[in-house]
What we know:
- This protein is of the alpha/beta class.
- The protein has 16 helices and 10 strands.
- The chain has an 8-stranded parallel β-barrel, surrounded by 4 helices. A two-stranded antiparallel ribbon has the order 1-2.
- The longest helix is centred in the first third of the chain and has 15 residues, at 57-71.
- The termini are far apart.
- One iron/sulfur cluster binds at residues 291-293, 295, 297, 336-342, 352-353, 356.
Amino acid sequence: MLYRDYGTTGKKVSLLGFGGMRFGQIDDPEACARMMVTAAEGGVNYFDTAPAYFGTKSEEVFGKGLAELRRRKLPYYVATKTFKTTEKDIRTEIEAQLKRLDVPAIDFYHVWCITSLDNWQERKKDGILTAFRKLKDEKLINHICVSSHLVRDEIKELLMEGVFEGVLFGYSAYNFKTREAAFDAIRAKKLGAVLMNPLGGGIIPQHPELFEFLKHSPEEPTTHAALRFLWDHQDISVTLVGFNDNEQVKDTLKAIEGYQPRSGDELAAVKARASASFEGICTGCAYCDDCPQGIPIPKFMDSYNQKLLNDKPGQDVISGRLLNHWHVDISKARDCIECGQCESACTQHINIIERLKIIGGKSA
Ligand code: SF4
Ligand code: SF4
């Protein structure tokens, strides 16, 4: 296993982290605990969950898994999150989380899922930072972190706040352009950087043909190549992967074993190739994000990506992404007045107006 610094916390964290969002057998706590043990025996020491993964079940099985790690004297850090904003609600939530996780303190506690700077300002008004600082003073949490879906300069603005010790954000071979600005702030503020969705929420393993260029050799599994592409970024502390079963844990550990960093020039060439490879795919660059009607266009186009790359018969992947990931009302697509401003700005020349019509149900 490789270990990197988590910002200035003094903690060395494993480059591969265990994400608690995907357990294939969530109703079998022993099986879930075994997966955590396999990961920890392979050197993983960063375990991340949340209070809404499988309801509260992910935190509950983490409680069992962490107890087993302690019994076996395997070291770990635990990370979780809260969507609550008031001091009273946060305290109620963390008390329940500590019980479920069966730990006296949470190492990395996240303000969860910032989707816009307005959303962040509202949470600040509710007193979220005061609440987090008190929890830290009381040693119920060790580090104040944030999870963000912001892009480009927005994410930078959030991270330059000066209160966070680390950030959790989505970054993968297909959408890295949208989030690269985060690294300026990560370096400036010396933050820990944890990646979620490193495999594009399943897009990369389901479409390996699109990501061949990431491979170092034809035999290399695409998922290993996609993870190694991220590990080449030295600012990244942890890459979270969610696993269905123990075999996936073992397979992913092999990606670390065989990892050889690319040189800076090689990495730049692969990134250039990635940028050029996704025609018609919204890269999330957000150059279009100034709609006079207030339509969050990058979020709609990201959701349309799911249709292009991940369409499954009988599943409405666009509305699923909009509602569950972005928390955006699909009817907002119908507010478009077809001024054309966004299409002029789009770096990928995407027919945004037509896609909004399809999403909003104005055309077949
Ligand atoms: S064309 Fe529609 S979505 Fe694009 S900027 Fe104008 S109103 Fe907004
Ligand atoms: S629609 Fe175009 S400009 Fe807007 S985020 Fe996507 S690629 Fe960038």
